[in-house]
Design brief:
Helices cover 59% and strands 14% of the residues. By secondary structure, it is an alpha/beta fold.
Length: 311
């Protein structure tokens, strides 16, 4: 009897131990999976043309914060549906973006959500949320390395400016010549040749004093203009007699031009009245003809004066 009781006690203890182990495994599974069974979640569905290796359990980020996980991926004929469970509700606006991004350089994927501009209209309840095509980092790096290799090959072949610098001796000689010319210019400046050289190495300071005096004169002129001194200063001040006289002159010129444009006065009639213009032209032609006749008759008149003056 005691032996039977002992065996039953051992079996009960073993059963309790296994029960505790199963409970501990369940707790560890929930903790490691980061699932909170008592917390409310929000389910959403996104449609992608491809997901670039996104898997169930990958994190979902919004504004840099982890807000949920990928629950399921469903491959269909022409697209992939991704089902997510989020801790917060989404408010997507027109201009939103759903991206599959690399979790790190070592691999892995995350889902990144951009809700769109806040001032844009919200999406309707029955609208399909489309995800962007993922960018593969490995492919982009391979493409970049391929472009770099093409550039290096072109340089080695002497193509382009850099290739010519490395392969073409004429370009090198031209650069050497430019460098030598620049060296000569610097040497002339250091020796005080030319105006700039004199400004740099002059010991008497005369150029500096002249420049200082010039700046002082410019400062005085600027101050006089600001104070309204002189004709130009009065014109700029807008308050003195010179400005008023100029304004009156411009008004008179404007009035005269308007009168001429309207055909008032003799000059205005000449501009506007074609008949008066034609008569004036005829008068000028008659005067020109009379002057020509007098010029032709002047030798005869002079001869007659000499002839009859002798008597």
């Amino acid at each position: 009897m005691n032996k039977y009781r002992r065996e039953v006690s051992i079996e009960i203890i073993v059963g309790l131990f296994m029960f505790v182990v199963l409970i501990a495994l369940g707790i560890f599974t929930i903790v490691l999976s980061k699932e909170n069974l008592l917390k409310k979640t929000y389910a959403y569905e996104f449609v992608f043309s491809e997901i670039g290796g996104l898997r169930e359990g990958d994190n979902v980020f919004l504004r840099g914060m982890n807000i949920g996980r990928v629950r399921q991926t469903d491959l269909q004929e022409s697209h992939v549906r991704v089902y997510v469970a989020l801790d917060v509700p989404l408010s997507l606006h027109h201009g939103y973006r759903i991206d599959v991004v690399d979790a790190s350089m070592l691999g892995g994927k995350n889902l990144k959500i951009y809700e769109g501009p806040a001032d844009a209209p919200e999406l309707g309840e029955n609208m399909t949320v489309l995800g962007a095509k993922p960018v593969e980092m490995i492919e982009e790096m391979s493409r970049a390395l391929g472009g770099l290799k093409e550039t290096i090959d072109a340089v080695n072949a002497g193509e382009g400016t850099l290739g010519k610098l490395l392969k073409d001796g004429v370009v090198y000689d031209n650069l050497a010549s430019i460098s030598e010319s620049f060296k000569q210019i610097m040497s002339r400046l250091e020796s005080g040749e030319g105006s700039l050289g004199k400004m740099l190495v002059s010991d008497d300071g005369q150029l500096y004093e002249d420049g200082k005096a010039l700046m002082a004169n410019l400062r005085i002129i600027s101050q006089n203009l600001a104070d309204g001194n002189g004709t130009l200063g009065q014109l700029m001040s807008g308050e003195d007699t010179a400005f008023q006289d100029l304004e009156a002159t411009l008004a008179a010129v404007r009035s005269i031009s308007e009168s001429i444009s309207e055909g008032e006065g003799t000059l205005g009639r000449l501009v506007r009245d074609a008949k008066l213009y034609d008569e004036t032209s005829l008068l000028v032609e008659d005067v020109r003809a009379a002057v020509d006749d007098l010029r032709e008759a002047s030798p005869i008149t002079s001869f007659g004066s000499v002839l009859f003056g002798a008597f």
